[in-house]
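Our collaborator T.R. sent over the components below with a one-line note: 'Predict the complex.' Nothing else. No constraints on interfaces, no templates requested, no preferences about which chain binds where. So this is a plain run: every listed entity goes in together, and whatever single assembly comes back becomes the starting point for the next discussion.
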Amino acid sequence: MSEEIILRVENLTKRFGGVVAVDQVSFEVRRGEFLGLIGPNGSGKTTLINLITGFVKPTSGRILYLNQEITHQPPYRIACMGVARSFQMVRAFHRIPAFKNLIVPLYSPRVKKLGGGKYGERDDIAVDLLDDFGFERDSLVPYKTAGSLPHGYLKRLDLARCMALRPDLLILDELFSGMTMSEVAATLPLIEKFNREGLTIMMVEHRLKELFRVAHRVIVLNFGRKIADGPPKEAMNHEEVQKAYLGTEVEG
Amino acid sequence: MAGPSRYRKERIDRGIKARSDTIYVLSSYREMVYILLPRILPIFFLLIFPLVVGGGYWGKVVFYSCTFALLALSWDLLASVGLVSLGQALFFGVGSYVAGGFNHYLKWPIFLTIPVATIGGAFICSLLLIPVLRLRGVYFSMVTLILPLLFDHLIETLEILGGTHGLLSLTPFPNHWMAVYIAILAVIVCLFGFRRLIHEDYGFVLRGIREDDRVVMAGGINIYWYKTQTIFIAGGIGCLAGALMTHYYQFVGRSAFALDNTILPLAGAVLGGSGNFAGAVLGTFILVPLSEALRALGGLRMALYSLILIGALAILPEGIFHYLERKYHQFERIVSI
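Returned assembly:
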């Protein structure tokens, strides 16, 4: 982990009508860090991700990526700067073969600029990449339409789509939800490997055991506010976090 | 003798050995014919058909079919990026009036007005639709439905571009054959060009936008730019159809913006099967001659026409072309169980 700050979020607030989904949240992410983002349901984790990746515009506050303000940039421009994200609910191009799903990021200005794949090479790159994610090259799986694949495959396809963009910052929104234990066991080492190779990862996850094994630091959200920030053990021992997760004692 | 329940129909793909997504390994003339036939047959048909029909009334019908086929191809291209257009009459009308206007007021020759109407019309249509590109689904469709009406009423009330009388006595094509073969050439180029395009990486980006535009944005691609490009191409093809029709008729009037010019190509694309362009051409080449053949029935024409359309959609909701394609690549045999 280097000292370089890759992402800085300053006093970020998002209101949906009367509901404050994200409330004055500030934090920094260093290059190479593995950051966990946790909190009870409805605490604003996904909204925070949508704000950082430009899918939702903030009510107030600033987001800086590599010292450049990206607060009001459209999602595709933020993606082209190197921020890849997965989606909580499985999203894929269902009527398109799995490996062709990766053509979209491979065709983006970012990958073209980085020199990844010329005309006629993208299919091979896509199949190679998917091979690392359990879509065996010699089987029929990469060539089947995405809609015909099981949920676990679609989750990994989403991850492969993120990696095809060659990101500097990878944001994963509940990647493991709906995956079987063996799928998680197969995918977790991959993510760890990406992190060891220098990729900065920000991960929303409900499977705390797996998350705490890999995360350097966790941020805990509750009702849109940041209530804890620190190494996993410390953060979880925080009084407010205990209350948020376990509830308070009923008095009287 | 065994009862029929002891047998069942089995469908087998008529595959070609060692086939990948992009490479065919052809090991015999039989296989080469198998691959080439569905591509050569329609070209052959399109080139020969006008000669068989001749230059009379049915010759005109061939020409109409081609212009509507162009509109249907344009509709199908927009549909493949997820934009459902109810405004093919907009493209048709803009193309008609640009070609007619330059020919009538500036006396530009026909071989200048048609390209200018195609490209210039594509610019006009793109500029009109860029503001509503952010609208999705039915909201985009509604705007495209309204725009031709807007032009229709502008021309009527402001009495510009000939007002209700239209622009008369425009330059005709040198002869019927030239008109028909230009239209047919345009249909063939668009048909095979679009089919190629949609299987390129570029085409997969377009199909991705139709499937889930948020995923495409997360993949670093500006979906509005790609939608604009698609509208430019589709608009240009629609305008070309309008420009060809204008010079064929030697007249352009408010009828260019009529709802018929939207409905007929759309019905053709749906009947033939959308998403592969061949269906759009097939559908219009069935519907346009059919509606002309039914003209003799007078008032009953539209009723019968609608019944045929409903019947076809009820029996083959996937479209005629999808059905034919599936049958071509499969054979059936009866096996005993």
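Summary for T.R.: The two ends of chain A are 49 Å apart (CA to CA).
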